Amino acid sequence: MKKLLIISVVAFFATASFGQTIEESQVPESVLNTLKVKYPNVKVTKWEKKDSIYTAELLMNQTATEVELNDKGTWKSTEWPVPVEYTPKKINDYISLNYIGYKINEVSISDFPVDGKMYITEISKKKDCEVLYFSLKGEFKKVVKETCNKNVEKKCCKKKKPCKKTDVENKK
Q1: What distance in Å separates the CA atoms of residue 10 and residue 86, rounded to the nearest whole number?
Q2: pTM given for the model
Q3: Could you tell me the sign of the dihedral formed by the alpha carbons of 82, 85, 90, 93, in that order?
Q4: 49 and 125 in one domain?
Q5: Backbone angles phi, psi at 163, to 5 degrees
Q6: Scanning 47, 127, 130, 170, which has its CA 20 to 30 A from the CA of 101?
Q7: Which pLDDT does position 19 carry in this prediction?
Q8: How many CB atoms lie within 10 A of CB 16?
Q9: Are residues 65 and 87 located together in one domain of the fold?
Q10: Exposed / middle / buried, residue 121 (Cβ in 10 Å: 0-12, 13-18, 19+)
Q11: Are residues 116 and 139 in the same domain?
Q12: Angle at 147 between CA 144 and CA 150, to 5 degrees
């Protein structure tokens, strides 16, 4: 189990979106304050900035965690990786039925200010890449279709490669 946790942490940070690495001294006070209030007992291991979004990488309860905040200090999301083999059965069944031939590339639980916690599942088939959103009960919520340049199955939806959103479908 400990090896699985270490592998998950390494994989999470290796595939997470990468902005420019910055020092904590370059992070606005409003961002630092929001993070400290929301997660008072964590230590940030790395700060990144992409456009107006600051990403704090940290360990929370021995789990790799990413927290995104905008430059005004508004919390945008928190994300925790889930090993693919721990994808809930209801989500696996939904994908098997509705996305025949697709491969699950990455699974995470993300917490958003409005929608709350959701499973986010990145799947691909050849040059097609989609991000599926599910409730914590495994109920399908929406899909974001993305087209990546190349090596889709290896780098699907990783922000290291430019991805273009082509369609969004909401289902309630």
Answers
A1: 17
A2: 0.74
A3: positive
A4: no
A5: -120, 145
A6: 170
A7: 80
A8: 21
A9: no
A10: buried
A11: yes
A12: 145
pLDDT of 16 reads 46
Tens digit of pLDDT at every position of the chain (172 positions):
444 444 444 444 444 445 899 999 999 999 999 999 999 999 999 999 999 999 999 999 889 999 999 999 999 999 999 999 999 999 999 999 999 999 999 999 999 999 999 999 999 999 899 999 999 999 999 999 976 644 444 444 444 333 444 333 334 3
Between CA 2 and CA 64 the distance in angstroms is 13
Q: Of 78, 105, 124, at which residue does a domain stop?
A: 78
Residues 158 and 91 in one domain: yes
Q: What Rg do the C-alpha atoms of the chain give, in angstroms?
A: 16
Last residue in a domain, options 78, 108, 126: 78
Both 12 and 37 in a single domain?
A: yes
Token representation of residue 104 = 């699950």
Domain count, the chain: 2
* 70 & 96 share domain: no
| Whether residue 157 sits in one domain with residue 100 | yes
* Domain residue limits at 42: 2-78
